[in-house]
Specification:
The chain is an alpha+beta fold and 258 residues long. Helices cover 33% and strands 38% of the residues. The protein is built from 6 helices and 13 strands. Strand 10 and strand 11 form a beta hairpin. Helix 5 crosses helix 6. The chain is globular.
Amino acid sequence: MIRLAAIILLLFGIAAEAHAQAARNAPRGPVPADAPLITDLSSHLIAITSSFTGTELLLFGAIDEPGEVIVVVRGPTSTSVVRRKRQTFGLWLTRRSESFDGVPAYYAVASTRPLAEIAPPSLLQRLQIGANALRFRYAGKRNPDDVNEFRAAIVRQKTREGLYQDNTGAVDFLGPKLFRTAISFPATVPVGTYQTEIYLVRDDRIVAAQSTPLFIDKQGIEQEVYDFSRQEPAVYGLVAVLLAVLAGWLAAVAFRRG
């Protein structure tokens, strides 16, 4: 009983710290009215619960003079492993795998026009704007000639999963200065701290930019279970096995009675 109370107090402490961290990272103070670029999100927090099936956020803003707008949303980075399989005696077996570091779990870009018509390739590459401009760090000891094929496979897979999005023309102007765009997140979006970047481009140059954080976190019982699985992995695994055995036994009893 004392141990359970300690776990509950610890969970409340973690939640309080997360709230304090969000407050520290939130935008501070209003942007000057004469700034060339003013933007904001409809919400800076996405709460993932048991009923979460994906969501959309609205990003809106205003510019001082006509220009092109690019919006980039980057998720937390991690290591990604790409496996190449080949059919051997009727079975698909992994013949080779390559690892890459610094792979964003989520990446979305929206713009008023195609990126190639807004900014030069050198600028897009330097700021890693566009999925093809992302620089994944090869984690292997050697650098094979076909390493770019494995990089492209990461982009293709995450695009199929809805985690990488290219929304050309999705930034809409509601007049000469006001603009908006919708950013969609699938049900499988990972938790973590995201970064939203907005660029104002004129004559192939970035004349203004803003960046604001976005937090995606589990809420409710999902958060408690997630924290418990990280803090007590052995106990969590044992409980999961026992629940699976119990469910199987109850199903067997129900079928026998039927």
